[in-house]
Every structure is written in structure tokens, then in C-alpha cells.
Automatic annotation (TrEMBL):
Domain of life: Bacteria
Keyword match Hydrolase: yes
Protein name: NUDIX domain-containing protein
Cofactor(s) the protein needs: Mg(2+)
Family: Belongs to the Nudix hydrolase family.
Alphabetized UniProt keyword annotations: Hydrolase
Pfam entry (one): Acetyltransf_1
């Protein structure tokens, strides 16, 4: 006997599989395995080094041939085997996704599914009758506005990055900085690399950062990110919540295809879902027309002080030196 439970969230490292409930033209897309006569949702286990979103993207293609779609996470769910004695086995956690497919390619023959069919209502012969009807029921109850995590159109895959993308994001960060600042390959960015890696190690668990990757096949051709933070509430921003967009980049041979504009839409939509009213960014001369077309306006009321740019009349007193002076004065008074 199997038991199914649903959770709002779980640590990413605990998620071992992805299940994708998908629709095409209003009908449910289900798969038939080559060795079975029953029907099931596309899905499968997460591979080493994958984000759970990347696992869902891969499984959806392998088991349905989906070529264009949008996908959203629905909820974490678990499956637990329970023996007749009542003893429970280990709980296995995964993520349930929902996808709307707009176009299929041919079903990949190298994988395990024989065919797909579209159903108006759930079939009677589920492959996992103790699990899949409960997922179906939960989907109906969990309806609501969700932030998409993957989108594929015109051969390009837009995927929300996760903690397992840390090394890729670090490499891309350095590439973007070299391109934006006109830096040669021999310019030392070792400290930036170290601090970027540390940043990506903490920002995803803290949910303070969102990044999008754009793929053409296995190649990354575009990216963008947004950091979320809190400042003191102000008259114009009572919540104090702010979002800062950065790391916007599209490979030169992929520009003027709407990639950067779509990434901006995804980033600002996430800020909107978090009820953040103030979104800012830094604009290069090349990027300014895009941002102005999107609706960003230049600001006049902020200034910046870079470290090392101010000549001090007298060096600031280090905290340790200040304590030493206070202790010395105290000792003198005691004499």
C-alpha cells in the first residue's frame, strides 16, 4: 500500500523525482510505457547534477516529445510504502509540475514510452492507481497563480536556474562581466569568481535571488537575474522591498530575437508575484534602448560612493585601536 502526502515546499536536495501533469488543447497528455498497457503522467527520477526543473524539462521531452510549452511547479509530494503490518518505509519526495503544451515533435524512439494520447478525463487504467488519481485531484485543488519555471518556444528553452546550476552561473557571471567591461581574458577576476561562488551557495536556499538561463540545445545563449532585498520603508515604497536586475546578457549571434525582452518579463513577473513595487537595474549604453522600451526610466535621485574613491583627511580609527585607547585611559585613571 502506498501513501501520498503533499507539502508546500521542501529542501531542494530532498527532491528525487519530477512528475508533469500536462495538457494539450485542453486535454490531458498521458504516456503508455512499451512494456505496459496502462497510462501514466510523464515523469521520472532526477539525475546527478540536475535541478528538479531540469529533470522535469528532460522527462517531459523524453516521454512526450513536447517541443513548445510552459511549465509551473505545483507542489512537493511524497510517496511512502506501507507494509501490511503497518510499518512505513522511507518517504520519497518529488515535485509535481503542470505544463501546457502547444506543439509536439516526434516521440523520441530511444526512450521507454511507446506512445502518448490525449484524454478528456482521467483513464480507468492508471499505471499507479494508488498515486496518480490523488495527483490529479490535488491539481484541481491547487489551482492558482504560479510562476513558470520553464518555457520552450521556437527551439529555445527558458529555464529558471536552481542551486545545482551554481558552477554554470558562476562561469556565466564572469563571461558577462568581461563582455560588459571590455576585459581581456588575462584580467584577473579570481576574487570575483570566489565571491560569486559564495553568493550562489547562499542565495538559492535563502530565496533571495532568481536567475533564468536560455538554451539552444545544450548551449546557453542568454541569461538574466534578479536579487531581492529589504530596505527601510519609504513614502514611495512602504514595504521596503526592492528587486535589482543584473547579469542580463544575450550571445551576439542570438540578439534581436526577443530573448532579453522575454527574460525581463520573467524577472519582473517574479518581482510582481512577490509584491515588490520597486525594480531597478544598471544600464549600459547598448542595453538602454531595450530597458526604455520595456518601461524603465532613468533616475536622478541616487548617488554612489565606491570604495577607495574618497580621500580621507584622517584615517578612520580601527575598532581594535579604539578599544586599546579606551582601556589605556581606564588604566591611567585607576592609578
Amino acid at each position: 500500500m502506498k501513501q501520498v502526502a503533499f507539502y508546500e515546499k521542501a529542501d531542494d536536495e530532498l527532491l528525487h523525482f519530477a512528475v508533469i501533469a500536462a495538457k494539450y488543447q485542453g486535454r490531458w497528455v498521458l504516456c503508455k510505457h512499451k512494456e505496459r498497457s496502462t497510462w501514466e503522467f510523464p515523469g521520472g527520477h532526477r539525475e546527478a547534477g540536475e535541478t528538479i526543473e531540469a529533470a522535469a524539462v528532460r522527462e517531459l521531452y523524453e516521454e512526450t516529445g513536447a517541443a513548445e510549452y510552459r511549465m509551473v511547479p505545483v507542489s512537493v509530494h511524497s510517496v511512502t510504502d506501507q507494509a501490511q503490518s503497518g510499518e512505513k518505509q522511507a518517504e520519497s519526495l518529488g515535485m509535481l509540475f503542470y505544463a501546457e503544451i502547444s506543439r509536439f515533435d516526434q516521440l523520441p524512439p530511444a526512450f521507454e514510452m511507446e506512445k502518448i494520447e490525449c484524454f478528456e478525463k482521467p483513464p480507468d487504467n492508471w499505471t499507479y492507481p494508488e498515486i496518480q488519481p490523488l495527483l490529479f485531484q490535488h491539481l484541481r485543488q491547487a489551482a492558482g497563480k504560479k510562476m513558470i519555471c520553464a518555457e520552450k518556444k521556437e527551439s529555445l528553452l527558458y529555464r529558471r536556474a536552481g542551486s545545482h546550476d551554481r558552477e554554470l552561473l558562476t562561469r556565466l557571471r564572469l563571461e558577462v562581466l568581461r563582455a560588459a567591461n571590455g576585459l581581456e581574458e588575462d584580467v584577473d577576476l579570481s576574487r570575483t569568481e570566489l565571491e560569486s561562488r559564495r553568493y550562489y551557495e547562499t542565495c538559492f536556499p535563502e530565496d533571495s535571488h532568481a536567475a533564468w538561463l536560455v538554451f539552444d540545445g545544450e548551449e546557453v545563449v542568454g541569461t538574466g537575474a534578479v536579487s531581492f532585498f529589504q530596505v527601510m520603508p519609504t513614502y514611495h515604497n512602504p514595504s521596503g522591498k526592492k528587486a535589482y536586475i543584473m547579469n542580463m546578457y544575450t550571445r551576439p549571434d542570438y540578439r534581436r530575437r526577443g530573448i532579453a525582452y522575454r527574460v525581463l518579463e520573467l524577472l519582473t513577473s517574479e518581482a510582481e508575484m512577490r509584491q515588490i513595487d520597486v525594480v531597478t537595474l544598471e544600464a549600459t549604453a547598448a542595453g538602454r534602448p531595450l530597458y526604455e522600451a520595456f518601461g524603465f526610466t532613468a533616475k536622478r535621485d541616487e548617488m554612489e560612493l565606491l570604495g577607495g574613491s574618497r580621500q580621507m583627511d584622517a584615517p578612520a580609527c580601527p575598532f581594535g585601536s579604539l578599544l586599546a585607547e579606551i582601556n589605556s585611559e581606564t588604566q591611567e585613571r585607576r592609578k
